[in-house]
Amino acid sequence: MHALVDQELAHIEAIIQHSLSEIEINPFLTSPYWRRRVADLLDCIERSPSQLRRADALIVALDQFDEQCAFSEKP
Predict the structure, then answer these.
(1) Which residues contact 31 (CB under 8 A, 6 or more apart)?
(2) Taking the model in full, what pTM does it have?
(3) pLDDT tens digits for 29-55?
């Protein structure tokens, strides 16, 4: 189970690190979508402390992205 969670975290990390700018233009790459994916991983029964830290870091990255988008939309 740990290996599957690690693989999914690696996938989400890669998407978020390289594709945040595309979230706005691609309807499938929305911030809420990726938050749900991370939340689903956090709901897994078996998670290591490092996996929890990685998931937390992903949430922080999404929070920062959302704040930047909200700031950029203000007049």
Answers:
(1) 23, 62, 65, 66, 69
(2) 0.79
(3) 678 888 999 999 888 777 899 999 999
